[in-house]
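Please, structure for the following, as tokens.
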Amino acid sequence: MSTTTLFSPYRICPIGAHIDHQGGAVLGRTIKLGTTLEYHALDSKEIRITSDQFGKANFLIGDLDKNHWARYAQAAARVLNPKRGMKAHVTGSLIGAGLSSSASVGLAYLKALADVNDIELTSKELVHLDFELEYNELGLQNGLLDPMSIIYGRKNALLFMDVVTGSVSPIIDPPSSDSVWIVAYSGVSRELTKSGFNVRVAECHEAAASFKAGRGNWATFRGKFSRRRKCHCLRICAGGRSTFSAKWNVSVWAGRFGRSLMRCDSGS
């Protein structure tokens, strides 16, 4: 039986962390690193996954163990609900390094399962299936930044994305540009589903809602949230569309909180 190979890239996010789930505009860009998946169909509902890093996993479509390394494959099968399973080998570097390896591998599984079941998916459907995979199945309160960046990413271009309308506008690199993007890995990995990501999302929603209702002030944030959390909250209030009052704008925030924002930016 012939084996198919697909590649699902990682992404970087110059601007937009914790803004996409608030309805704001974001910037994203794919890179050359990512997930490679080699697979072929099985005439059963079984899925067999092997990984150089994690070993082997066998399960049936519909199974889900949120603590297992193969949970993204399991969640992909649950949201797609295909009739046939597959045998696959997955590889990827810098897992859990902040490059959205989770969305990358989730989309790889979705594409492979769709392929072996002759299911045609649009780019928009893939984005929302990956969102459903992480949000509904794995409990991560994420936005659309990661899957949109990966699905619509193109060579030599930054993406300007509106997560409300779903529009994507590429910003092509200048032909004579000698600039480069540098990704520095600290050596410390993390998994979003096991980190404090959902706590930060909840704090951002609470902060934005407070300002929208006219109850927010700097003293409130100073007493309630940590310095790093305040940085996230202020970014959301300045960038989030759905919860950000029209009477506030970036220049107002820069004049009122500019010094604190710069301290947060340089230290987070």
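The beta strands are 4-15, 25-42, 46-51, 55-60, 85-92, 157-162, 168-172. Residues 194-267 form one domain.
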